[in-house]
């Protein structure tokens, strides 16, 4: 049955999408990309859990870090990158600030406080429910990173908190640094989906939670959007995702593959979309002949046309806040109207028969 719905919207400015690409094949072959929100979260959780076929030991992490955390700008493959680090000096040439280093000889691992690195649990062990220990989630290489011994100790089990510049203690917690905040956010999101009851983001980061998920912290979505994926993240994700590799777990971090997946699940600031042909908000074609028009609108009204009966219409701003949710919309003369709405950009999510499509709309 063909239905017409009329809506007037106004949302916050929407960021653009960037970077061409496609889902890692064959890892995502057959995955249902038609779901959004909590359904997508659940589906990805199942995917990364079922494909986690190789369990690493905590001792294995020493060796795996020497492979997956190599500095991609070092042709000699002699140095690993250190999470939270920011100085390019190298030990022993300058030891006075050795805890600030961002790279170090890969064989300088151990527990010494001078010029050595150890294994940082990005999701601090003691903040798990219960403690993550050094097996299972406590030995998952997706969140274990080399870090300077002293700097690792300075972070301890402090929760991640807002800040700027280099890493360090801030009021209320630990700021990972401008270079690393996106890495941290994507690792925490992975841990939440892989260990959904043990690794709650609200236990490891500070700030407000999103309206759709009382466990997800808005700050992590902000960091995910502000700090795009690096070549370094891609390389370690590809290695760990291949179970044929000596230390390959078999599963991937989906938020490294495409940070925009976090936006599709939780909303918030629009992150980098690495699959614009698939997941761009205006490119979903999940409901037959869905049209949103006029777009942009000059009269504060947006019309929705669909051949299917709609189950739900959601208006969402760029901060992930639900502006309005209309369940089982009643089609009084097949028209729905919201009046006197200001200018802006919005996401409108339309659902029908367990399918959904998200459209970007502009009100001039």
UniProtKB/TrEMBL annotation:
GO MF annotation terms: hydrolase activity; nuclease activity
Entry keyword Signal: yes
Keyword annotations: Hydrolase, Nuclease, Signal
InterPro entries to which the protein is assigned, alphabetical: Endonuclease-I, His-Me_finger_sf, Secre_tail
Residues of the signal peptide: 1-20
Keyword field contains Membrane: no
Residue ranges of every copy of the Secretion system C-terminal sorting domain listed in the record: 292-363
Pfam families for the chain: Endonuclease_1 (PF04231), Por_Secre_tail (PF18962)
Renumbered residue ranges of the record's region Disordered: 94-117
Family: Belongs to the EndA/NucM nuclease family.
Family annotation (PANTHER family): ENDONUCLEASE-1
Name this protein carries in UniProt: T9SS type A sorting domain-containing protein
């Amino acid at each position: 049955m063909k239905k017409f719905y009329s809506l007037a919207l106004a949302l916050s400015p929407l960021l653009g999408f960037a970077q061409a690409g496609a889902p890692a094949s064959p890892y995502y072959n057959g995955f249902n990309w038609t779901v959004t929100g909590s359904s997508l979260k659940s589906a990805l959780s199942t995917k990364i859990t079922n494909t986690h076929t190789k369990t690493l030991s905590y001792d294995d992490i020493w060796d795996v870090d020497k492979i997956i955390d190599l500095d991609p700008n070092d042709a000699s493959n002699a140095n690993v990158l250190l999470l939270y680090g920011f100085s390019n000096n190298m030990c022993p040439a300058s030891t006075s600030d050795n805890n600030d280093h961002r790279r170090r000889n890969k064989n300088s691992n151990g527990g010494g406080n001078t010029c050595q690195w150890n294994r940082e649990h990005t999701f601090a062990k003691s903040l798990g429910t219960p403690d993550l220990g050094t097996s299972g989630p406590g030995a998952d290489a997706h969140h274990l990173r080399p870090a300077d011994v002293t700097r690792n100790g300075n972070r301890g089990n402090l929760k991640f908190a807002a800040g700027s510049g280099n890493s360090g203690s801030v009021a209320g917690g630990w700021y990972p640094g401008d270079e690393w905040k996106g890495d941290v956010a994507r690792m925490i999101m992975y841990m939440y989906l892989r260990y959904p009851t043990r690794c709650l983001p609200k236990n490891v980061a500070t700030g407000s939670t999103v309206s759709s998920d009382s466990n997800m912290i808005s700050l992590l979505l902000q960091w995910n959007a502000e700090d795009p994926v690096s070549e370094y993240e891609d390389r370690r994700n590809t290695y760990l995702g291949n179970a044929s590799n000596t230390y390959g777990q078999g599963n991937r971090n989906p938020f490294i593959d495409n940070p925009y997946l976090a936006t599709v699940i939780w909303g918030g600031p629009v992150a980098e979309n690495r699959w614009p042909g698939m997941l761009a908000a205006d490119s979903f074609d999940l409901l037959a002949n869905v049209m949103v028009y006029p777009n942009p609108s000059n009269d504060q009204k947006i019309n929705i046309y669909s051949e299917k009966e709609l189950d739900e219409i959601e208006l969402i701003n760029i901060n992930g806040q639900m502006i309005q949710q209309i369940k089982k919309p009643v089609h009084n003369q097949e028209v729905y109207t919201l009046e006197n709405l200001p200018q802006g950009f919005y996401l409108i999510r339309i659902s029908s028969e367990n399918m959904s499509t998200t459209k970007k709309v502009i009100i001039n």
